């Protein structure tokens, strides 16, 4: 392969007077002009090397920074360990409706909302608002506050060893902006397992932000790799849009200008659930 025609402009973000996070910012104007395969390969190699040394590292696209800045800043703060910490043991887990899910994910997840079958939230009761810094709660009179959400697919059922096997996908997980709800995903997974009794749960780790080690701590195992996928950025507002799979074209207004980008791919993770064990 030819040498890359673009050098990585790696930034170091410091917390507590020491560099703890490396960020590769991708300028869309430069991306459009350069050898894109080189950038993807170079970025992937750099992220793997940094993470292999225990250094958090991410690839940050310009469109995310411009259109979803508050969410990006929140995720950076969480990676740096400077978010507001909320113990998940203080929260209550329960099913939530589609409208509540959509509102929360659009405000707190980098990729917004998407279709799902089962939706769960963690709620912090008012009596525990004391763990939050002064002025953090927007409505101190509310009896509870939604602080994390996870969504799951319907079951994909197939035969394994002659018996039905139920597999679900963990589609989205997000915490409230500027918080780290410690143990949130574990608690939400357990709520889903108790209610739906899946045989396994699969999900994907976005390689631009993570190598998936947090999933490993929750009992997930690596089961494959998804290569980089194409996405379209709507230039008017820097929002990513859905594509028509059959035509490889955006699903929106055809006269709108778009720029094609690619993610870095993802790692597939699967957690096998032993329904006879005390998972919860």
Helix content class: 25-40%
**3D shape:** globular
Radius of gyration: 20 Å
Q: Could you give a short account of the major beta sheet?
A: 8 strands, mixed
Strands, count: 18
Separation of the first and last Cα atoms:
50 Å
Helix-strand pattern, N to C? EEHHEHHEEHEEEEEHEHEEEEEEE
| Strand-residue proportion | 35-45%
| Classification by helices and strands | alpha+beta
The low-pLDDT segments are 1-5, 275-280
Count the helices. How many?
A: 7
Q: Mean pLDDT, as a whole number?
A: 89
Which helices and strands occur, and which strands form pairs?
Blueprint (H helix, E strand, L loop, with lengths): L10 E5 L2 E9 L1 H6 L2 H17 L4 E5 H6 L1 H12 L3 E4 L4 E4 L2 H11 L9 E8 L18 E9 L3 E5 L2 E13 L3 E4 L1 H13 L3 E7 L6 H5 L3 E6 L3 E5 L4 E3 L1 E2 L4 E2 L7 E5 L3 E7 L8
Key words describing this protein structure:
280 residues; alpha+beta; 8-stranded mixed sheet; 3-stranded mixed sheet; 7 helices; 18 strands; globular; disordered C terminus
